[in-house]
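FYI - complex with FE2/S2 (inorganic) cluster, inputs then prediction.
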Amino acid sequence: MAIDPTRVPRFAHGSRVPGWDDAADLTKAPAVVPDAATTPVPDELRVEIEAYMARYPDFRSAAIPALHAAQRLHGWCSPTAIEQVACVMRLTPGYLTAVATFYDMFDTHPKGRHDVYVCTNISCSLRGADELYEAMLSAAGDDPDFDVKSFECLGACDIAPMISLDGEYIGPLVPEDCDQIVADVKAGRPVLEAKQLRHRPAAVSAGAQPSQPPTPDRAASGPTASHNEVEGPTAGERGPERHATPRGDG
Ligand code: FES
């Protein structure tokens, strides 16, 4: 299928994702570490951040999970959220802002509660991602609860075209799935459960024997259904949760 170049929007810096579009304000005074006496931090956030800091030899390695915790609590990496993380970690807000603006999965502007990333990189594009993206935008409409964005390779090309919905990987999808996705989210139901990556068995090591035939659900889950012929850990069991992804083309 030929790709129509007019359907591949690019931003001024050449990428298909909005990257570093906000210039740094060089007139601002250098930030200082917030004063703990005058910076209120919710107890549960403080406890969570301190637990992350204890995991690493260099406490600054906890910046990403700490920002995730603040984003979960505040809905986005607001100046207040960053100030609170900075206060607990004894870092400057500028240090954490540099991290938050570098990674796509942090938002430094207000956004909808539900993150819908539609992968539009090459594998997904070849399988109809641009149509899927348009269908997802149209299904979400003006609902402020949905934050629909295109994304560069979410690393699940075997289920292309796919989306990440609040961290749940779902695919392969067709544009007609989008209304159901929105309806499931609004109803608080699991979203297209049969197409969730976590329910797909992974390939197992050489020599393993098939122990169970695929269920109808699994067999229907897409063009890579042959992966399902052997038992193995599900995707959710085989690796850590995906976290922030650096901005830029994948
Ligand atoms: S191109 Fe879409 S997941 Fe890799």
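Residues 119, 121-124, 153-157, 160, 162 surround FE2/S2 (inorganic) cluster (CB under 6 Å). The first strand starts at residue 114 and ends at 119.
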